[in-house]
Write a structure and sequence with these properties.
This protein is of the alpha+beta class. It has a single domain, classed as Sandwich (Jelly Rolls), CATH 2.60.120. The chain has ten helices and 13 strands. A hairpin with a 5-residue loop joins β7 and β8. α1 packs across α5 and α2 crosses α5. The protein binds 2-oxoglutaric acid and fe (ii) ion. The site of 2-oxoglutaric acid has 11 residues, from β4, β6, β10 and β11. Fe (ii) ion (FE2) binds next to loops. It comes from Durio zibethinus (Durian). GO terms for molecular function: dioxygenase activity; metal ion binding. It holds the Pfam family DIOX_N.
Amino acid sequence: MASETPLRLPVIDFSKQDLKPGYPEWDSVKTQVRRALEDFGCFEALYDKAPLELRKAVFGGLEQLFDLPLETKMLNVSEKPSHAYIAPHPNAPLYESIGIEDPNVAENVDSLTNSFWPQGNTSFSKSVQFIVEQVSELERMVRRMILESFGLEKYMDEHMNSTKYLLRAMKYKAPHTTEKTLGSRDHTDKNIVTVLCQGIEGLEIQMKDGEWITAKPDSLTVMIGDSLYAWLNGRLHTPHHRVMMRGHKSRYSFGLFSNPKGGYIINAPEELVDEEHPLMFKPFDFDKFLEFFHSDAARKTQSAFQTFAVSNSNLVIKIWS
Ligand SMILES: O=C(O)CCC(=O)C(=O)O
Ligand SMILES: [Fe+2]
């Protein structure tokens, strides 16, 4: 008989007082993180330093932001693909997003805010800065726990210093349907770790058995991306996920993405490579992969990561077993 309880992602509580390396609480949360990322590639984090009211303030600001004229939103530019404004597209008509590179640098948030609102919008920039500060602290705790759980402490500084943040904020227009409609297609993230905050439900994560679970908007969803999967030589799972919409409400969400810095070569540590776990990926530069991912060649493929792996053998090669 089918279970009555709806499936839910593992929920991990990061709100405890003594959550510092070396404390018993830390070790207990670390064990839960490792297990969740092996089994699901993601989990829901309870984190009272990023309370719901604070996230609501950001969503309120995003509503105003996405209401700005298209030409204003197009002032959000970047040299990198998928780091700037993305307008609704025939393949994803409900979706649009903006990006803020290095959002942990206050001036970057201020300057984007001022380009959108020349008269200023301090409450928007302050709430974004504060949420980024809190969520990035959680993101770093998770990565520290992951490295410790694999006994990779000696790589901690190198790993932490080789990443930078991108904040992407999304709007999904209400589809005005009763049936679920695709808001964002099924994908894996390409980066290291993503922390997602959603205003209303819509994010769905695929389990290893193919079933989809809906992530709850009252917690933060933490998931790992392909670059961390590659660096850990496949030890954790990278989950497929998508956004499904229905009804008459627009949905706002934002994600803090830790990305490998351009020029940094992702290379699995020797501790994770042995006879039982042969090297899956040759060293690669994340920015080169991103370039490929946004090329016409990649669009024609089923999995850009795998195609990149076999077709650009000088950059990264997946050793198929
Ligand atoms: O809007 C969401 O909840 C998910 C967005 C997402 O998966 C992404 O930006 O990679
Ligand atoms: Fe994603």
